[in-house]
Amino acid sequence: MLIPIFIYIVVPIVCLCLHLFLCQWMQKQAIDPPFWALLLVMISYGGWLIILLTGLFWQWSGMASLGLFYLLFVAPFLMLGTAVSIARQQQLSVYHRWVFRASAGYIPIVGVVVLITLLGR
Fold it and tell me: Which residue ranges traverse the bilayer (predicted)?
């Protein structure tokens, strides 16, 4: 029972805490954090971590399939919108630049992962 608790409870809580820590860290440095854009990046990449851990250490389920559907068919559009909306804010800080790069690189990264998965079969 520890494996699903770790995958489905601990990993999301750690990602959320990391998001809040980064936003507080930016505010301490007098930087207006890109709260929602960073949250979307954390959700999307954290979702891939959960999918990976599920595939490696647990059994596949309908919820995992729904999560994968989101990551493949919904998240790319949201990440593209995030990249477009934050593109002009890249120069504000290294954090804004990181959020832009993570959101702009999502579609190519997912494409490579899907291609490797399909070629590996």
Answer: 6-23, 35-58, 64-86, 98-119
The crossing angle, in degrees rounded to 10, of helices 75-86 and 106-119 is 150
Q: Report CA dihedral (110, 116, 117, 118) to the nearest 10 degrees.
A: 110
The answer to whether 70 and 47 have CB atoms below 8 angstroms apart is yes
Parse the chain into domains and list their residue ranges: 2-119
Span 24-33, pLDDT tens digits = 999 999 999 9
Which residues, in sequence order, are CB contacts of 75 under 8 Å at separation 6+?
44, 47, 106, 110
Predicted confidence band of residue 94 (pLDDT cuts 50, 70, 90): very high
Would you list the DSSP string of 31-99?
Answer: ----HHHHHHHHHHHHHHHHHHHHHHHS---HHHHHHHHIIIIIHHHHHHHHHHHHGGGGGG-HHHHHH
